[in-house]
Specification:
The protein is 34% helix and 13% strand. It is of the alpha/beta class. The protein has two domains: 464 residues, no CATH class; 195 residues, no CATH class. Strand 24 and strand 25 form a beta hairpin. The longest helix is centred in the last third of the chain and has 37 residues. It is globular.
Amino acid sequence: MPSDDLIYFNGVNATRGVYARAPLTAGQLAALIKGDQPSAAQIEPDAGQRALLEARTTGAGSFRPKEGVREDSLAATGWAVVFPAQADYSAVREALTPLLQLRRSQAGALYRECFGPTGYRPAETARDFLKRQGAATSGVVDPVRFPYYVLLVGSPEEISFRFQYQLDVQYAVGRLHLPTLAAYDSYARSVLAVEQGAVRVPRRAVFFAPSNPDDRATATSSSQLAVPLAASIAAEERAKDWQIETVIGAAATKSRLSALLGGAETPALLFTASHGAEFDPTDSRQVAHQGALICQDWPGPQAWTQRALTPDCYFAGDDIGDDARLLGTVAFHFACFGAGTPRLDDFAHLRSAQEPIAPHSFVSGLSQRLLGHPKGGALAVVGHVERAWTYSFSEGQGNRSLETFASFLRRVLLAGAPVGWALEFFNERYAELATGLTANMESLRYHEAVDDAQMSAHWTEHNDARSYVVLGDPAVRLPLPQGVAAPQTVRATIPEVRSVTASPASAAPAAAPVTAPADPAPALVAAPVTPTAAPFGGVPAPLAAPPVAAPHGYGPPPSVVINYNYGPPPSQPDPVTPPAVTPVDAETSFGLRELLSGSAEAAGETVQTLADTLRSFAEKMTETLQATLQDVADLQVATYVADDLTTVDFRTGDFSNAELRAFTRMELGGDTQVLVPRSDLGVDQELWAIHMAMVAQAQTNRAEMFKAIAQVASGLLTAVTK
């Protein structure tokens, strides 16, 4: 493009009602990039990061898992969670128990927790962190030394966005930072529900892009990003059973977006391209609403000037109601600050001084609401930290950048790949552009000519590619129906999350493998694996049959039947029979007349009789609890396979027509017996991962049963001793 053509940036300052950054010519932007003393540090301030990016581009070392490791198998790639070292995240860790136990069962020996002293330390670079973990700081990823999929848990003040960018060059990284413990628990149970096969979303993707009046930026992002992306996916042979829709221009209203984000029209994947709302640091709405999606309801820059945008113009986290149904969704937001906001302006460092744009770094409120929704959250949100750059994909400049978006979508939608692995296309583009721009800056230092338009285009593409991040677990993938399985006609939910409380004493020891804590987060209720509470004097009711296979391969395939219980049924104790009580009229019941009349002697006798009755009842209840405790102390998990499930009468416990392929017995004292599935190729890793997932769930259920018994026993003790 000619150097005097204006470059429009996405983003509207909602505090003042103007563009967040005024349009520039390519020449003006190039002048900012060059500065007075051109330096590679203006492209990427961290020298170690520049070296990593150059190595990835020049082929000095692979930045994928080592040869022979499948990126879509956690048993091969591993999975790690990283907490801040200098903050108490014990309660958050406990709330995430369902997710951590699930990943531990899938990754096996390649599961890693960085908690307490092994967690992330303030101001630590990715190189320093990896070195401390015993991992290679560049080149091929060896999951044995450090897992490929990494979930950062914490705010960007505690674990910086820059660290996330750095680590993401080599690994598949996601971040989870939510406002409450209940939100963390909800997200953990959402992922568990999806991977146990309780959720099957329809093959439907929607591309939402307003085109506001008199607005060059959204006209470009709708016509040159959203529309061609939708067409590219729809043209794929693999997409023949997909429903690809566009909601463009006048149709892209706030009310329509509400239907697409938790409403009746919620798709498997929602891609949005719009302005992101930006607020001044002094605006009280900044933390809650920055990165909100500006819809077609905004009348454009000429009709709406010099006055604050009202909430009618944009869609924020506040607009997602408690009844929204989001479980199983993945969202991609092309919008300024759509994923988060750094404290300092990355654009300003071109002038050698980074300016504060927020009181602190934070994750967008919209993303937090999507991920932590009480009825079940989105699996992941992919979005932009800082500003998004429309010019990076405009005609004649960003065609390769457009292909980066398309490749990400194909891998997630059509290949069913984990979101973190699909984002590697952006990481590759980031490395390529950073290396090229570094060379340009070096040329400028020696007064060699560099085309202004080319430099401006490459610089905006570089910033655009660098700042895309995954919010949520990077190992999640869409729960699409497989084979003859049909999608659910009504989007599944998890029950409302009850208050989650935790104390450091109840959490697992720092840096230890996750086990069922003394007071675990609520077990998943949506999946049919939670035991029905047994009546006193009985044994726990049999667990329901497991759900149909999760489509992504982490859950059991249709030919696998899992049966687990809490040991053999003990001999039935004598039934609990309340002591006989002679019928009396209502007035004399429990000495009411004497109590009301003030007869102290009669009242005392009545109280004593009542106490004796309660004590006798408590003694019989204690016998029942002891029998139940003995029953649940011996945990057994058996995994069977069958070619045809209809021949197995698993509802009555008859597995004679199925083959036992894995077995685990855990006694309360810690003694464990394990029968490992093996084939000609060695241990059957996929079946073993399924089995271990069920073991983890059984442990959680047993912990819940112990907790319930303890609560009842405590109540009985109080009744007896009073």
